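**Backbone geometry record:**
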Amino acid sequence: MTGIKDIQLIGNEVAIKWDDDSEDFYPMDKLRAASPSAETAGERDLLGVKIGGGEEGRDFTGVTVTGWNPVGGYGIQFHFSDGHNTGIYTFEFLKELTNHL
């Protein structure tokens, strides 16, 4: 999997330039809605019962990315204007998102 060469905030989008020189653009509100965090998507206990979450389908119009931190060599933790910052977006997850936004 490729890594990130550059990341910039352009208007209401996050622009990522990958090490292979390809580029992807992510609407900030859609990126927030797709957060892989337990807070947003929930998580399963040992019996498979979903705990938490409940933000699926919520409208995040107007929510912006205010910053980010790299996570190891595999992901990004975005900081959003609504205070959310617990999701870790792996590079693989971000590449997969380009097909769904």
